[in-house]
Amino acid sequence: MAVLAAAVALWALPSENEARKAIVETAQSFKGVPYVYGAESPEAFDCSGFVQYVYAHAADIDLPRNSREQWAAGKPIEKGAVKPGDIFVFDTVGSGGPSHVAIYLGDDKMIHAVSEGPKTGVVVSPITDRYFGPRMIGARYFIVAALPSAAVAAPAAPVQAAPRTVVPLAPAAVAKPAAASTAPAASEPVVSQVGFILKSTPEVFNDKIPAATGTSIAFTITNDTGKSGIFHVFFYKAELDFSKTKILREDRRQIPAGGSVEIAPYLFIEPGVYRLNVKTADNTQLMQRTWKVVAAKP
């Protein structure tokens, strides 16, 4: 997958404080907007789509689309040094890597698009939230103070307005794109990450959060059955006539007790009802997850 992070820079705006204020105010204006996997419009957001949209419309800063790329593109910052408008990053699926992002508001509060819990959609939470607090893995910033005028190269010809000063990422913070990928970054599908835990007793779960068409979802499966084993994962679109149901994707993975694996993303292109089943090697079903895929809104 092409990495968008390589194209992102830290922007030094004419007024850092104004940019941060605009990001915070814009983010708060979307409180209550519902969560949809893969959504990135004022009518619905997922977590990284929300952060990307707010930065673009409040401060004209282009961020990568998913949480992993935002983590890779931003500049690391200690939790105690975070300012309003910076982002916190979390591991909410058990993979050990970034899967959720939030915008810091100040006063130990953050705003983010949330898919699970008592409230979903764009909500304000304390950074010490009982669920999110322990899952925080770090913070990133994209806004820096304007450079002194002597540090900015003079333009080759007169211009009407001074350009924004681009401060490139340090080489170590930029992930290199895969050598085999030649597609432009803009054509890459969005990846939403969903995690769930396999238990020793079967579970059936209907997800109240839909996904937008064009969304590629990666599932992280954690084995909490107490035993290592081989698990079969099946994706299929649920049809009213069950005889017409076809398996869209099948994976077979060995997962140690207490371990996690990520199933390669699946791109959903048609609206409908979809199911993910996980079975043991002896065909015992441990998990069934059902969710809707709806037409993406422009």
Folded structure, characterized:
The chain is mainly beta and 298 residues long. It has two domains: 4-149, endopeptidase fold (from Nostoc punctiforme) (Alpha-Beta Complex), CATH 3.90.1720; 189-294, Sandwich (Immunoglobulin-like). Helix content is 11%, strand content 39%. The chain has three helices and 20 strands. It has helices at residues 16-28, 47-59, 67-73, and strands at 10-12, 40-41, 44-45, 75-77, 87-90, 100-106, 109-114, 121-126, 136-141, 143-144, 165-167, 190-198, 203-206, 211-212, 215-223, 229-238, 247-255, 260-268, 272-280, 285-294. It has a six-stranded antiparallel β-sheet with strand order 4-9-5-6-7-8. Strands 13, 14, 16, 17, 19 and 20 form a six-stranded mixed β-sheet that branches. The chain has a three-stranded mixed β-sheet with strand order 10-1-11, with helices on one face. The two termini are 24 Å apart.
